[in-house]
Request: fold
Amino acid sequence: MTTTDPAGPAMRAQRPPQESPQPRRSLPARVAARLGGGVARVFLIVVGLFWLMPTFGLLVSSLRDPADIAASGWWEVFTAPAQLTTENYSRLLRNEAVTDSLWSSVLITVPSTVLVVGIGALAAYAFAWMDFPGRDWWFMGVVGLLVVPVQVALVPVSRLFGTLGIFETTLGVVLFHVAFGLPFAIFLLRNFFAQIPRELLEAARLDGAGELRLFARVVLPLGAPAIASLGIFQFLWVWNDMLIALIFADSESAPITVALQRQVRQFGNNIDVLASGAFLSMVIPLAVFFAFQRQFVSGVMAGAVK
Reply:
């Protein structure tokens, strides 16, 4: 004799399905979840304030009289705000060596950035979407150049520039920065351009677009975030460089980094000129970064998603 369920199939259908047990999280995951709240934010804010403290101290020192700098620390300005003055910057801007070096920094940084971005974008498009013999081998060679240290090329490039007559000139410094900036630029932009849908490029080709028009009208607008990120990186690297300029530039074409180093060697204790000059040289790349901050963040996020 068989028995039947009095609830019937309708009641069995209405029973909620049993939930599968949640997987047990590891100890690091539980610790990270608990620290991801307000405690982590407060900790990061404190770390950020400590990180910015030397920069703020440099700013305050650049606005103090040399006698006050020698007598007390920069934090004394909170109790004696009358110490703040702009005389250091006035004296700095009257220093022809510093003002000429600022102009030299612009003449070195802007062409180096524009050439690396322009040539790197063209080469990256070729490696990503054009077929030519040995394309993969050439790209592997470009990637291999990323691991070549700058110090290895100083002596042979110096001899080459001396033979060509461009040693200790602005052109020589620019060419060196372009040569060592192109491998990273090609590698970065090629990986970004390769994520563009092939159908979009094929549709543009069917409409009669050539390679240059395709590059200018389709690839460049889509790759603007990555190009902006590369431009910021290259600008910061070249602007803050001192090793290459110290070797390949003379006194007339030396950038601000070399000029400040020579001020230390020549005078030794002129902290007022060094503080104001260092802060002024730091403000310009910061202004460039904040001007292109939105494109930089978009490029980083796009690269993370893709």
